[in-house]
Design goal:
Structural class: alpha/beta
Largest sheet: 8 strands, parallel, barrel
Helix content: 40-55%
Order of helices and strands: EHEHEHEHHEHEHEHEH
Shape: globular
Distance between the termini: 21 Å
CATH topology: TIM Barrel
Radius of gyration: 16 Å
Strand order of the largest sheet: 1-2-3-4-5-6-7-8
Oligomer: single chain
CATH architecture: Alpha-Beta Barrel
Number of helices: 9
């Protein structure tokens, strides 16, 4: 993964398909697009990890999957189990949805423990913590980032794509300023062209989650 923004965007992109109506043929198409365009990863729902492994197991494209998605309101133990199954099926990265309600209740201890449990279950794979910034003010976003970093998450991520809003330049800058240089920032949600992708990278994003990966790198 590039450390600094570059002209080529391929190495920043998690080529994403999280629609509930996605089919096996859709996943195959996604994986082939990611490989042929040298994108960093695909990001898919857990039921498709084995399919993606069949297409990408010998390639350089990583497989990311989501846990507790899209609302984060499942029990912590189920998130851990979901992670274990994903890793067994071939996932390289986990995008974990935090429990938004518990965070808003101020139960940061539960959020931290949940992140740590998932990191442990991920067995040295990267874990990205989805904050869902559209629900929070700036102070809450910064606090969520601090909780994630203290729990030793590898990335913080703006959005699921199913919340009230997607990534913004302002939120990406805030997240980068909060986590420093030793934690990744994934901008996700509403990034549909190369101009916006480059702006997110300039603001501090080190990964871009988008369903428009092919058009972005082709423009």
């Amino acid at each position: 993964m590039p450390d600094q923004p570059e002209t080529l965007l391929n190495g920043y992109i998690d080529h994403t398909l999280l629609r509930p109506d996605a089919t096996a043929s859709d996943i195959e198409k996604l994986c082939k697009e990611a490989e042929s365009n040298e994108l960093f990863a695909v990001c898919i729902n857990g039921c498709w990890v084995q399919n993606a492994w069949n297409y990408l197991g010998e390639s350089n494209v990583l497989i990311a999957t989501v846990v507790g998605f899209p609302f984060g309101a499942t029990d912590s133990d189920s998130k851990r189990y979901e992670t274990e199954v994903a890793i067994d099926n071939g996932a390289h990265e986990i995008d974990l949805m935090i429990n938004i309600g518990k965070f808003l209740d101020g139960d940061h201890q539960t959020i931290s423990r949940e992140i740590r449990d998932v990191i442990d279950a991920a067995d040295d794979r990267r874990v990205k913590v989805i904050i869902e910034t559209g629900y929070f003010n700036d102070e809450q976003i910064a606090t969520a980032c601090k909780v994630a970093v203290q729990a030793e998450a590898h990335f913080v991520k703006t959005s699921s794509g199913f919340g009230p809003s997607g990534a913004t330049i302002e939120h990406v800058k805030l997240m980068r300023e909060t986590v420093g240089q030793f934690c990744g920032v994934k901008a996700s949600g509403g990034i549909r062209n190369a101009e916006i992708a480059r702006a997110m990278i300039s603001a501090g994003a080190t990964r871009i989650g988008t369903s428009s990966g092919v058009s972005i790198v082709s423009s």
